Amino acid sequence: MIEIKKVNNRPLNLLERIYVWEIFKGFLVTARHFFVNLFCPGKIITIQYPEITRPLEHAAKRRTRHRLKMRANGTPKCVACFLCATACPAFCIHIEAGEFTSSQVEKYPAVFDVDLSRCVMCGMCVEACPEDAIAMDTEVIPGGVLKREDMYLTRNKLLQNMPGDPSIKGAANRLA
Ligand code: SF4
Ligand code: SF4
């Protein structure tokens, strides 16, 4: 049930109508924050984003930056079928297929780029993938970069996108 909050629309008194006291109150708030920030750094509520980021709450339930998953033999699970790129409403996935010559799997992504500056984090690419090859579970929120190219995820970045996962270390190098 929606709680309705009643607002007291009383007429302004003289002090409020001339605004001087209200402006002074605003200055007091600014000054309070200034001196708290200056002398009590532990109480600063703003953080130096993007150099510092807050830990993500309920990270496992959120869609975060993409990664490409690997098979046990170190090759990407992606078979370059283009379904994710087709499903993407922002047209920010670019794939070029390469062919395995000695494998039961026909294709692999020779190029797999995701332009995060256009991505709307909708998760349609993950939903569309028939191979469960792409995931959005790195617990990294994209954004706040200093260079435009940092918003561009190449295949190798996507394959090495899970810090601390030893199974994918050097995985990009195992591709043709
Ligand atoms: S999350 Fe959505 S917008 Fe981003 S790459 Fe996937 S399908 Fe495209
Ligand atoms: S990530 Fe999945 S949907 Fe996209 S090209 Fe690879 S296998 Fe196909």
SSE topology sketch:
Elements (H helix, E strand, L loop, with lengths): L13 H4 L2 H20 L27 E2 L14 H5 L5 E7 L7 E9 L8 H5 L5 E2 L16 E2 L1 H5 L17
Antiparallel strand pairs: 1-4, 2-3, 3-5
The structure holds iron/sulfur cluster (2 copies).
The site of one iron/sulfur cluster has 13 residues, from α3.
Describe this structure in words.
The chain is α+β, with helices and mostly antiparallel strands and 176 residues long. It folds into 2 domains: 12-46; 59-163, 2-Layer Sandwich (Alpha-Beta Plaits). It has helices spanning 14-17, 20-39, 83-87, 124-128, 155-159, and strands at 67-68, 93-99, 107-115, 134-135, 152-153. Strand 2 and strand 3 (107-115) form a beta hairpin. The model is unreliable at 163-176 (pLDDT under 50). It binds iron/sulfur cluster (2 copies). Residues 78-84, 95, 128-129, 131, 133-134 line the site of one iron/sulfur cluster.
